[in-house]
Automatic annotation (TrEMBL):
Binds 1 zinc ion per subunit. GO terms for molecular function: methyltransferase activity; zinc ion binding. One of its GO terms (biological process) is methionine biosynthetic process. PANTHER family: SLR1189 PROTEIN. Gene3D superfamilies: Homocysteine-binding-like domain. The lineage of its organism: Bacteria, Pseudomonadati, Pseudomonadota, Gammaproteobacteria, Moraxellales. The keyword Methyltransferase applies. This is Homocysteine S-methyltransferase.
Length: 291
């Protein structure tokens, strides 16, 4: 069982770090990297055993093509350095996961362009590679993108985790990615690529339990994880960059722990939080799920 961190971007916003559309969490890498480090530290002190580099928004979708070409490597280097400094300052054996974000925007499988995968993914991978302990492809909803990016990552000893974002519809008979692709289709790819762990993130906690049960049947021996967001359900029109979504008032650390206990009981062994999940939530997970 490993405890992951929570949502760095919304934690930056909550603390008054520079945070606006369209740059989101990338803006703090320019203007307030010390706050990025402090957020990492607070998650580690809350019990996170894995933290993820804060380069999720360092893609053209958020910072623009010109700025990406000019500044991406420096921004990503800043992100990984702040994670390393946080681990050093806390003197913990915390693992650093290298964030591979959705290259064309969260939930936007419709914007996937196979002709531009390498030019976006390689600066991310090459800059992170010397300093990360494992890879985490986050908020994935396009299976072709997952496969193409995986082919670009160094094939060495490091673990490779893929985290899918699910449709926020508790009435579906089967879980679906935001693209509409099924977990059965995802399972074929996970086996083909020999992925080390499959996780579910950036969707409401109510839809994750069903997905865990499904993937456990489809890929019995894979490690499973979950880190939900604290947003209200995002339907098929959601783009994750139209505005600052409200955080649910009901999803306090105790309620989130109740969901996490269900995930753990169903077989998840990598549990943390996504957007809106704070160090207080992670502390609650660490205190109870590690027992």
């Amino acid at each position: 069982m490993k405890i992951l961190d929570g949502g760095v971007g919304r934690e930056l916003e909550r603390r008054g770090a520079p945070f606006r559309q369209p740059e989101w969490s990338a803006l703090a890498l320019w203007e307030a990297p010390e706050i990025v480090k402090q957020v990492h530290i607070d998650f580690i002190q809350a019990g996170a055993e894995v933290i993820t580099t804060n380069n999720y928004a360092v893609v053209p979708f958020h910072i623009g093509q010109e700025r990406f070409e000019q500044d991406a490597r420096q921004l990503i280097s800043t992100a990984v350095q702040q994670a390393k400094l946080a681990v050093q300052d806390t003197q913990k054996n915390t693992l650093i996961a290298g964030c591979i974000p959705p290259l064309f925007g969260s939930y936007r499988a419709d914007l996937f362009d196979q002709n531009h995968v390498s030019e976006i993914a390689l600066p991310i991978i090459e800059t992170l590679s010397p300093d990360v302990d494992l890879w985490l492809a986050e908020t994935q909803s396009c299976l072709q993108e997952v496969e193409m990016v995986h082919a670009l990552v160094p094939k060495d000893h490091r673990l490779y985790w893929v985290s899918f974002t699910l449709q926020d519809n508790i009435n579906l008979a089967q879980s679906h990615l935001r693209s509409g692709e099924t977990l059965a289709e995802a399972a074929v790819l996970l086996k083909k690529l020999n992925i080390d762990a499959v996780l579910f993130n950036c969707c409401q906690p109510e839809v994750i339990l069903q997905a865990i049960h499904e993937i456990k049947q489809l890929v019995p021996h894979i490690q499973i994880g979950a880190y939900a967001n604290a947003f209200a359900p995002q339907d098929e029109t959601a783009t994750a960059n139209d505005g600052l979504d409200d955080v649910r008032a009901d999803l306090d650390p105790n309620m989130y722990l109740n969901f996490a206990k269900q995930w753990q009981h169903a077989g998840a062994s990598l549990i943390g939080g996504c957007c809106g999940i704070s160090p207080a939530h992670i502390k609650q997970l660490s205190s109870h799920l590690k027992e």
